[in-house]
Amino acid sequence: MTRKKVIRIVLWVFVIGLIAAFSSIYYVFNMPRRNLAKENAVYSLEAKQLISDFKKDEASSNAKYLDKAIAVTGEIKSIRTLDNHSMVFSLEDSMEGVSCTVDSADVVVYSSKLSAVKIGSKAAFKGRCSGMLMDIQVINCVPE
Predict the structure, then answer these.
(1) In 10 A of CB 24, how many CB atoms?
(2) What is the pLDDT of residue 35?
(3) What is the pTM of this model?
């Protein structure tokens, strides 16, 4: 093979690699978000029951609830607004309870329902369980 052919082949492989990389990055950043408002909850339970399940056996609770749409009801202990305008509602216990995170786009959509939620009141959220750190994380929540 001549030197020009080798350079041409290397350039084509490089260009195809760049196209594949940029296509992958574009897909990851623009893929559709899971719409939990339209999904039916796989499990509907009280926050106390969810906490109890995770404290008894975290591994089996992860297998049961992880990445599934769940509806959680409980007493609001704290409400926080994050820097990105998302809101976090802590149910039953501020430290070891259930943290329901409402994304900033959903805060705008459900602003009237969320403004009615006060500390000490009961509230229900539907979201995706992402496991337990110090508290149980339920993300992409929408108020019910």
Answers:
(1) 10
(2) 79
(3) 0.76
